[in-house]
Amino acid sequence: MMRIAYPAFALALLALPAWGAAGPFDPAKSPVPPSDAASSTPGKKPMPELPSPYTKNYTRGAVPPANGQPADLAYGAYQRGQYVTAFREATKRIEANPKDSAAMTLLGELYNQGLGVKQDPVKAAEWYRLAAAQNDAAAMSSLGLMALDGRGVPKDVKAGRRWLEQATAHGSPTAAYNLGLILIGTGNAADEAAAAAQFRKAADAEIGPAQHDLGVLYLQGRGVPKDPSKAAELFRRGADNGDLASEVEYAILLFNGIGVTKDERSAARYFLHAASRGNAIAQNRIARLYAVGRGVAKSPVEAAAWNLAAAGQGLSDAWLDQTLSGLSADERSRAERLANERIEQR
Question: Are 229 and 260 in contact (CB under 8 A)?
Answer without folding.
Answer: yes
